[in-house]
Each structure stands twice: as C-alpha cells, then as structure tokens.
Amino acid sequence: MQAPDLLPIEEQLFALSMESIRLFAQAHQDESFYGFGIDCDAEMGMFLLCFNSEAAFADTAREYVDRFNDDAARLAQLKTNFGDWKYQGFNQDQPHWDAGWGAFREAIEAYLTDDAMEVEPANLYIEQLMRCACRVLVRIERSGILERTNMDAGFTTSVMDHDQDHQEATVRLNTIRAES
Q: Over the stretch 71-102, which tens digit does the pLDDT of each residue have?
C-alpha cells in the first residue's frame, strides 16, 4: 500500500482548521484563552484542535487536587495536556470537519494499520505527519486567525502526538518554525 500524499493532507488540514477556528472564535467571543494546540493521534489520522482558558485550567486543577491530591509539578504538566483542556477537539463537533477530513483520516489509518506495514516505515510516516501538523500550525499562526480569539498575554501554541512529551513536541515545532 502506498503512503497517502502529505501535500494534500497539509492543505486540507490547514483549510479545515482555519474554518474551525473562525467558527470557534465567533462562538466564544466572551472568553479569553492562554493556548491553542493540535492534539494528534497521527496513527489514526486524527487531528483535534484545542483551546483552553485560565478559568478552565483553574477548574481542572481544583478537580485534580481534590481527586488525586496532585502537587504543583503535576498541575503544571496539566496546563499543556490537551486531554484536560476544556475545548479539546472542538473541531470534531463541526459538520464541515468530518465531511472534509473523513477520507483523509481513513486513508492515513488504512495505511498505518495495514497488516503488512512494518514498524520503521510506519514511525517515519507518523513523524512526517507530525511535521505536517507543525507546518499547519505555523501557517495558522502567520495567518492571524488566532487573533480573532481573545488571547491572554503569553498565549502559546503547540502540536503534540497522543503520547508525546511536551519538550519533544516543542523541539519539533521550533525546528519547523526555523525551516519556514
């Protein structure tokens, strides 16, 4: 099976993300956000757009202290953990997303879960997909669309795969920024 071409994937991911962010910004004009990210499950072809606010983070932090007795170090990690963000995967609820992304997701998933797929080529393709998602984020940043939201001072962006360390993800994103 041949790997899905990354150029149309990048173009479609960018176009759909721009529309999703536009719609999100319209619906959340009264909120302020400290971060935006792309939460990836690259092996499954899933790219979840995420926003979080300080107020939502404070609620999550209180819950984690109450439920798990988490300390300050663990709470600091939560701030960049997309799975704990209030608006994780908001694009999945928008009708244009599945209609525009479904075929790409299916092609990526079919390629990477093919029984004949070997580990090394799969890992290489996943890394290429992650670099593609980083290029999409850089394009989003440069487009100015994030400024349609109320951005807190120190607003940050990130792209991470589902089990990836934040530091590793930051190195990849900074490398792509330097190349762009």
A: 766 767 778 899 999 999 999 999 999 999 99
What span, in angstroms and rounded, lies between the C-alpha atoms of 134 and 120?
A: 21
What is the residue type of 149? T
Q: Which residue's entry shows tokens 């998933």? A: 109
Distances (CA, A) of 41 to 4, 10, 45: 16, 15, 6
Mean of pLDDT values over 162-170: 90
Amino acid identity of residue 25, one-letter, is: A
Q: Which H helix or E strand runs over 172?
A: helix 166-179
Instruction: Give CA–CA dist 63/135, Å, rounded.
Output: 34
Distance between CA atoms of 47 and 121, rounded to whole angstroms? Answer: 21
Q: Are 131 and 172 in contact (CB under 8 A)?
A: yes
The single residue listed with the structure tokens 């795969």 is 161
Beta carbons of 1 and 122 less than 8 angstroms apart: no
Tokens 């890394």, residue located: 127
What confidence category does residue 163 fall into, taking pLDDT thresholds of 50, 70 and 90? confident
pTM for the complete prediction? 0.94
CA angle 105, 57, 170 (to 5 degrees): 55
